[in-house]
Design goal:
The complex is a heterodimer. Chain A is an alpha+beta fold. Chain A has helices at about 25-40, 60-70, 190-195, 220-225, 255-275; strands spanning about 5-15, 15-25, 45-55, 95-105, 110-115, 115-120, 130-135, 140-150, 160-170, 175, 185, 190, 200, 210, 230-235, 235-245. Among the domains of chain A are: about 5-40 and about 165-180 and about 210-245, RNA polymerase, RBP11-like subunit (Gyrase A, domain 2, 2-Layer Sandwich), CATH 3.30.1360.10; about 45-155, DNA-directed RNA polymerase, insert domain (RNA Polymerase Alpha Subunit, Chain A, domain 2). Chain B has a single domain, classed as Arc Repressor Mutant, subunit A (Orthogonal Bundle), CATH 1.10.10. By secondary structure, chain B is mainly alpha-helical. Chain B has helices spanning about 15-25, 30-35, 40-50, 55-65. Classes of the chains: A alpha+beta, B mainly alpha. The interface between A and B is medium-sized, with 30 and 29 residues. Bound molecules: iron/sulfur cluster (2 copies) and zinc ion (ZN) (2 copies). The site of one zinc ion (ZN) has 7 residues of chain A, from loops.
Chain lengths: ~280, ~70
Amino acid sequence: MNSPNPFVEIVELKGLSIRFILKNSNTAFANALRRIMISEVPVMAISDFAIINNTSPIFDEILVHRLSLIPLTTDLDGFNLPEKCVCKGIGCSRCQVTLILNVKAGDSPVTVYSRDIVSSDPRVIPINGDFPIAKLSAGDEILIEMYARLGRGKDNARFQPVSACAYKYFPRIVINTSSCVKCTNNGILKCVSECPKGVLDVNVETGYPYLRDPLNCSLCKACVDVCEYNAIELKPDDTSFIFYVESTGSLPLHKIIYTAATILAEKCDEFLSKIGGFR
Amino acid sequence: MYPIRCFTCGAPIGDKFEKFKKLVDSGMPVNKAFEELRITRYCCRRMLLTHVEYIDDIVELDMLYMKKKYKR
Ligand code: SF4
Ligand code: SF4
Ligand SMILES: [Zn+2]
Ligand SMILES: [Zn+2]
């Protein structure tokens, strides 16, 4: 293949979400990247519990479920995956962090928040102290010891570093100027008024419709369906992809995307070494 | 209690319910509150919009029937 090298163009980076265009690529690569971001990039989450005392109205199972879903900040270079650790998964300081939740209510009800969790390692703490975990009535007590470790999204959703992670083809609208009659509906071009996203517009020079804002076109084909003259065509560009990725806050976005690409490269290397000598 | 994550997309939203309630109770329109909290997808929006918080009733019952009064 001598297609030009793929590259990434960042459109928008706002807090925990990013929108970028992957160019000169193909569906296989884009989808591999998406799937690896969702299911293979490791992230810290609480996965083992020792409930010592829980007299709250919240059942143990629900409490444990809620605690495990709280995203923890992750230091990918500082920890090993338990199955790849020197301790072979038993749990040591290089693959496990202990956290303790100990709250006791006095004479009035108390809400337990994620800020009450005490971590033995400052690198691994809840991303946010405002997650309500449980509510205690007077005199209730919660005492739980928790063990956080790295894991992968394919094993459990708590280990997923991204929430929304999707791509779409880069849209391209082609107008056949010989058959377009510039039909109007209340003075606006029919296809322009039909677009639910409002991304089609009239070219002031030629009077033909054009795609003003390709990033927000949803490829819904409403503009194609409304045209009675078959003059408008939607041709998605299958070498460019608009990605939208949103981090849960455990890992910064650049780290998620970079790690996903690294994992894909590792997988390819492994594949090549297994089939042997076909380079 | 209010879920920690959105059932559909997995975004952490547990920390937003109290803020959302405060904003809406103070008279802010719901769509403005969503924008303020930067909740953009409708899966996450329905989590906040349709939640019924009944844990306070459970705690109250617990206090009454477990003979744990606020003041003894
Ligand atoms: S609906 Fe068809 S004919 Fe009418 S303006 Fe659009 S492209 Fe042209
Ligand atoms: S495909 Fe849908 S969103 Fe895109 S320009 Fe046509 S009508 Fe608008
Ligand atoms: Zn270990
Ligand atoms: Zn959602």
